[in-house]
Design a protein that fits this description.
Length: 200
């Protein structure tokens, strides 16, 4: 029986507070629909192939908008474990179906390895249809709407700060964070980034 090791990865969405994944694949699948989809697609494929899933590795890219070598740390761990487990790494290639540019560092590294690459396809997960094309299209629309909301966000923060005229910039940053108001990119306010925001 062929042994497989699943590798699932996704991008962060800083402005939505999605910056970290749990290393446990089951927990990560509850945090990210993309991870959940990859995990289920791979598990179903392994069942149909008559193989067994011996390990799962999850990874998050460091940047939301570009490929970096950061993901290679987790990939190297997955490849090392697969070799020790005498298993073949299996992962999903979203670029193929979406017409996207491939993740350069990831696929350059994998070009040296014998891995199983699956094409994404619509899937039913827990009685719910999931089409990766629709999912990514919807996320793109959400991101566009977020970018368009930047003037409203600025107005909201300036209004909140105007109520704190007697506080230092550091105290205002702390108050904004305490009120759950984040920077446009989803980061906590600091004295430095608030000062820069107010000078614009």
């Amino acid at each position: 029986m062929m042994r497989y090791s699943g590798f699932y990865w996704t991008l962060p969405v800083f402005w939505a507070g999605f910056r970290k994944l749990d290393p446990d694949a089951a927990v990560a699948a509850s945090q990210s629909r993309t991870i959940r989809y990859q995990r289920e697609l791979i598990k179903q494929w392994i069942r149909r192939a008559g193989g067994t899933l011996v390990r799962e590795t999850v990874a998050m890219e460091a940047a939301p908008d570009r490929a970096s070598g950061a993901i290679l740390v987790d990939l190297e761990k997955a490849l090392t474990h697969a070799m020790k487990d005498q298993a073949r790494l299996v992962l999903v290639d979203f670029a193929e179906a979406q017409g996207w540019r491939r993740h350069g560092p990831l696929w350059q590294r994998l070009a040296e390895e014998d891995v199983e690459v699956l094409s994404p396809a619509p899937l039913v997960i827990d009685n719910e249809a999931f089409d990766p094309r629709d999912h990514f299209r919807a996320w793109r629309e959400i991101e566009v709407a977020h970018v368009r909301s930047k003037p409203e966000h600025r107005t909201l923060i300036l209004a909140a700060v105007s109520e704190m005229a007697d506080l230092s910039v550091a105290a205002r940053a702390e108050a904004l964070n305490g009120a759950g108001l984040r920077s446009f990119t989803g980061r906590l306010w600091s004295e430095d980034n608030l000062r820069k925001f107010l000078s614009m």
